[in-house]
Write a structure and sequence with these properties.
With about 200 residues, the chain is α+β, with helices and mostly antiparallel strands. It has four helices and ten strands; from the N terminus they run βββαβαβββββαβα. It has helices at about 40-50, 70-85, 135-150, 165-185; strands at about 10-15, 20-25, 30-35, 55-60, 95-105, 105-115, 120-125, 130, 135, 155-160.
């Protein structure tokens, strides 16, 4: 059996623009503390923990970030690296997952493949430049950086939606549910990589 106590990742990254620390536990109980300096980004990242069950701690600080871009991108980079570490060799995982999540008028579809290859595709449109204190153009950038550094394939499609807050939140909730499914373990395949090539890490 996989040692579930080792499905954790802890990463930090310090640059002249930001200082980011992330801890993630795939066997958690949705305990989360997220502080990026942006209330809206915090709210979106909270969804990943709350709806996947992962424990998540994120602390991001900026020393040179006039518009929130650097902290948003750097937080996603470190979160992706922490997820990659928590997945280890990716043996025994279900690997793929998807979810369709509504939030009032918004409906978002997210599919992921923990393939070891970072790639993302987005089909979503926002109506306003800001959601609270967060620029809507950064939503896709955060998700792209997370997928690249987490080394997973990510597809996002917004099926309906008018309220940008609802659209963004539905996306992150669907991402959480898709990841929860993809990282889950299938004991029938203990010790095996869910790939015909025999590995997801090379």
């Amino acid at each position: 059996m996989v040692d579930r106590t080792k499905r954790q990742g802890r990463k930090n990254r310090k640059t002249s623009e930001s200082n980011v620390e992330v801890f993630i536990d795939l066997e958690g109980r949705a305990n989360y503390t997220v502080d990026t300096g942006s209330k809206m980004l915090d709210h979106l990242l909270d969804q990943i923990s709350r709806h996947s069950g992962f424990d998540l701690t994120i602390k991001s600080e900026s020393s040179n970030d006039p518009d929130g871009h650097h902290v948003a991108e750097d937080t996603a980079i470190v979160l992706g690296r922490a997820l990659d570490e928590a997945l280890g060799e990716r043996e025994g995982i279900k690997r793929m997952g998807h979810a369709i999540v509504p939030l009032d008028e918004a409906l978002a579809l997210v599919a992921v493949d923990l393939s070891g290859r970072g790639y993302s595709v987005f089909d979503m449109t926002f109506n306003t430049p800001l959601i609270g204190d967060f620029r809507t153009e950064l939503v896709s950038h955060v998700l792209e950086s997370f997928a690249r550094e987490g080394r997973f394939n990510l597809h996002v499609r917004v099926l309906t939606g008018a309220n940008d807050h609802h659209i963004a939140e539905a996306i992150f909730k669907a991402l959480a549910k898709a990841l929860d499914s993809a990282v889950s373990l299938d004991d029938r395949f203990f010790g095996q990589s869910p790939s015909t090539k025999g590995t997801l890490t090379e």
